[in-house]
Amino acid sequence: MSNYAPYIGSRYSFSRQRNRFTSVIATVSMLGMVLGVASLIVVLSIMNGFSGELRARILSLVPHGYVEGRGDAIVDWQTLSSRIESQPGVLAVAPYITEKVILVSGGQLRGAVLTAIEPDLQASVSRLADSIVAGSLDSLEKDNFDVVLGVSLASLLGVSPGDHVNVTVPRLTVTPLGLFPRSKRLRVVGLFEIGAQQDAYQAYVSLRTGRILLGGDEGVQGLQVATAGLFEAPGIMQALDKSLEERYVVQDWSQTQGSLFSAVKMEKLMVSLLLLSVVAVAAFNIVSTLVMSVTEKRRDIAVLRTMGARAIGVMAIFVAHGLVLACVGIATGVIIGVLLSSNIAAIIAAIEAMLGVKLFDPTVYFISELPAQLQWFDVAVVALASLVLSLVATLYPAWRASQISPAEVLRYE
């Protein structure tokens, strides 16, 4: 008799002798729970996939860390580079100079970020060389005034490899006629594509060309650092910061790109809360089911109380009744959500083939497929949150059931 509450509660959940309307309400509650849990798992998996895809694409160009001079150029950058490479966790170092410029071609004018690099060293800190889709990154070293553009930027300017663009930098040239912005004609020798916003504004030249355009001596603006791992980079760069003098500023990718990934994380949180409201509605539909069950089982409650069942035992019966319904819905929702998340790409491909349309047009979107990354931690959080909401929903009807007086119920029996 010590386990009578779960036993009777589960019997109530699956009893065929219930009122038909009560059965319909219970079924709707479970279906709502299934829909809410499954949709929440699928959406979280898709957002994880988008976040991972975005991180992989952006960080294919963005190094794990930076070391810059505090207001001044780094003149003896080779010595500093050797010092940084000797630090634990640091794999490679490459110099750079960067500046915002204006590119003009055939009447088209676009703002861009011009970065001067050493192509042979750049390959060790980023995957720029692997992202080249036309031309070659090594071509930058052959001649001065060559440039590699992002695919989208080249399309906006209407240029391709072999064409020329005019670049205007925020430096002044003194001439007998006065002061003029510094401008130069560059030859496009390559195009890169990573499938992110950098394709629309990033341009690369050699370090030698960058010094000519932007001025300066043999110094560089900073050093790009590749570490042993993406998520180990903050700790490695923090240790590097402590080992360098105060005239250097040390940053990692989570600081330079932190606002973007924080926005993605906040968006995931807000979408999760919105979809959790669907689960909450389904959970509180259980209240209606239990209220009707309490009304239907008043005589059973009175009989149990006269047989010695305590109020807390009656309350436990209806808590178990509600939790059984919720657990069935949650378990079914988890199974459906996991299956959909694991096969979302194949499902989208089948829908596209059936309808004859491309849902994610690669000419419009950077990502042409719907990525999904199932994380079991998210599945566990969704299941636990749904269970807690269901438990809260059962408390009031169960408490009302425990307050029923057996004498009042059995008086007219």
TrEMBL record:
Record-given protein name: Lipoprotein-releasing ABC transporter permease subunit
Record-linked InterPro entries: ABC3_permease_C (IPR003838), Lipoprotein-release_system (IPR051447), LolCE_TM (IPR011925), MacB_PCD (IPR025857)
Sections of the chain in a coiled coil: none
Keywords tagged on the record: Cell membrane, Lipoprotein, Membrane, Transmembrane, Transmembrane helix, Transport
KW Plastid (keyword) present: no
Classification via PANTHER family: LIPOPROTEIN-RELEASING SYSTEM TRANSMEMBRANE PROTEIN LOLE
Residues in MacB-like periplasmic core domain copies: 28-223
Subcellular locations according to the entry: Cell membrane
Residue ranges annotated for the ABC3 transporter permease C-terminal domain, each copy included: 274-406
Main location: membrane
Record bears the keyword Disulfide bond: no
Domain of life where this protein originates: Bacteria
Entry membrane topology: Multi-pass membrane protein
Record-stated family: Belongs to the ABC-4 integral membrane protein family. LolC/E subfamily.
Transmembrane feature ranges: 21-47, 269-291, 312-338, 344-367, 379-399
Pfam family, one: FtsX
